[in-house]
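Now for a chain:

_____
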Amino acid sequence: MSEMVLMRATLSVALCLLLASVGSCCGPGRGHGKRRHPKKLTPLALKQFIPNVAEKTLGASGKYEGKITRNSDRFKDLAPSYNHDIIFKDEENTNADRLMTQRCRDKLNSLAISVMNQWPGVKLRVTEGWDEDGHHSEESLHYEGRAVDITTSDRDKSKYGMLSRLAVEAGFDWVYYESKAHIHCSVKAENSVAAKSGGCFPGSSIVILSDGRTKPLKELQVGDKVLAADQQGHLVPSDFLMFMDQDKQIMRDFHVLETEEPRCRLTLTAAHLVFVMSNNNNSSDIRAVFSSNVKVGQWLLVVGKDRPDHLIPARVTRIHVEKYRGSYAPVTSHGTIIVDWVLASCYAVVEDHDLAHWVFVPVRLWRTFLSLVGMVKELSSVYQTEGVHWYPELLYHVGSWVLDSSSFYPQTGL
């Protein structure tokens, strides 16, 4: 029993490492901006699934979040697909198979192009999409519009192994060559952190240095001390350790959280963690949530204008989305940072600030060692000029190795 618990604990840590590395990157994926050489595609074998973990785990499409019906608030999140390069079986004659999440539709559109390139004259065929009739087992991702079952238009079963591989290459979060009749594909939820391409701030965001001066976040350098908060919520100077990822050119959507009294405007990606309170009179209610989950009426912690050495609650009055060029993911020794006069976490992906902070213990220890020998700037390899930092890259490879070497049985809920 103890060995089983240890194995599960080890795997859980590996999953968190994997997610921390992927989600903390600003770009759309590992190796963004690098030239990729054509690679030979290997068809999947019958009953093979990629990644080699259960469908509803963090390393794949993630947990089931509840059935969507036509009367539920989440129904508006389903997007119809009218792609003429895709054939929908639609045996119910309700167009239900055309409905899916935006992420699922994007991956399906990419796959449709790959199918036509692979087999001229052949189209992608969807046999099952969103299910509103209860034809699948409990907690099937079909009920959320996050799963599709596919074949080719010519129903040539000899193509299905390669079709499965093409689905993997198209970016589906879990692909299962389930039977000789079809392939099952699914994606992460829209509000999943891993689906949001990480957590970052625009480079134009302002940080406060320990001496009170301010500078654009993109200009931070190793050796800088910035204003952050400790576990007790006190403002403290904190060492800037590195950018987990930085991309000067990428154009992306950012959530803008505006407050009143004092008026602040925090800009960050949907997957980034920010500290909120539901009641401004209850400091024990402070928790870290994804910025996409912040609601008008909640309270952020901001630097007081009259008492700049204290954090005070400020009510969120407006939330909207704006596009910015440039995306930066800073890490400090305290794991928090004051950006645009608002307290935010340095982390994303997993909605657990403390766990994410624990993952970066080696980086903090390395920084401490360099400080002791007086060689922070001379020998600090925790800083990079562009792209993904080597430490998240290392975590990605470790997590991938653990996941690929683990044995799981598929849990499709079909």
Observations:
- Residues 201-364 form a domain with the Endonuclease - Pi-scei; Chain A, domain 1 fold (CATH 2.170.16.10).
- The chain has two domains: 48-186, 201-364.
- DSSP finds seven helices and 20 strands in the chain.
